[in-house]
Amino acid sequence: MGKSKVLVVGGTGYVGRRIVKASLAQGHPTYVLQRPEIGLDVDKLEMLLGFKKQGAHLVEGSFSDFQSLVDAVKLVDVVICPMSGAHNRSHNILMQLKLVQAIKEAGNIKRFLPSEFGFDPARMGHALEPGRVTFDEKMIVRKAIQDAKIPFTYVCGAAFASYFAGNLSQMGTLFPPKEKVLIYGDGNAKVTILEEDDVAAYTIKTIDDPRTLNKTLYLRPPENELSQKQLVEMWENLIGKELERISISEQDFLASMKGMDFAGQVGVGHFYHMFYEGALTNFEIGEEGEEASKLYPEVKYTRMDEYLKLYT
């Protein structure tokens, strides 16, 4: 059997472009949905043409043209949809319901990977408003997938390094603080942080693997399961300087939501679950899931002490 043919929907996005790169690198015939909605966004055009130069196939299709989605899906074996679920970018989770309908109509797909990649929404029924909307919508998509009897893999469990590592998990910046660092509570909750290319590499590994069929793949490589304090210490060791640490209590952190816009409130809620509850790591992986680094030890994932050197 050859490598599965892969369609990436949302291939010019933050995660999507990495999925395309990983799919090509692992030798899969790779198709990228070319949507007319990009309009005059020349950066996305250049990205699409770059994919084409690397060997990807561009397929025209639109969420406003159902048949075009069906036709695109029929070209491949696997569909991956890393569309944004972040309110500080674009939030398109429920658009995937049209894609689920198209996959059901096409009837040929052996695996669908919807937009996940962070918290496992099945474990976030207790999530705070308004941030819980992300998890509720992902569960709506999951229900549609399972009702349609579409084979799936859900990839969950990591914070992205660009958002959580280089800035030492500070809100409102992507760069490391120079003098003072805000510590959430006691700073000991464990958070899995992965470089985004590693997330993509693990994702593509799953698609021809029977061990991940109708399961959740958790991205929890042990050396990247770190507390915020450990992350700060890594940075201090690299720069040879101690930062002033300011601890913020749960109550004060949640109170900071007041007066924020919607995206800010969502962000505070998600940070709370990550750094006060440890919601990415505070459970054992059961029979419904697998852990990525155990299944795929050949993926040489980037350790965060190495990653942080980029910022020195």
TrEMBL record:
<dbReference type="GO" id="GO:0010283">
    <property type="term" value="F:pinoresinol reductase activity"/>
</dbReference>
<keyword id="KW-0560">Oxidoreductase</keyword>
<protein>
    <submittedName>
        <fullName>Isoflavone reductase homolog</fullName>
    </submittedName>
</protein>
<dbReference type="InterPro" id="IPR036291">
    <property type="entry name" value="NAD(P)-bd_dom_sf"/>
</dbReference>
<keyword id="KW-0521">NADP</keyword>
<dbReference type="Pfam" id="PF05368">
    <property type="entry name" value="NmrA"/>
</dbReference>
<comment type="similarity">
    <text>Belongs to the NmrA-type oxidoreductase family. Isoflavone reductase subfamily.</text>
</comment>
<dbReference type="GO" id="GO:0009807">
    <property type="term" value="P:lignan biosynthetic process"/>
</dbReference>
<dbReference type="InterPro" id="IPR050608">
    <property type="entry name" value="NmrA-type/Isoflavone_red_sf"/>
</dbReference>
<dbReference type="InterPro" id="IPR008030">
    <property type="entry name" value="NmrA-like"/>
</dbReference>
<dbReference type="InterPro" id="IPR045312">
    <property type="entry name" value="PCBER-like"/>
</dbReference>
<feature type="domain" description="NmrA-like">
    <location>
        <begin position="3"/>
        <end position="308"/>
    </location>
</feature>
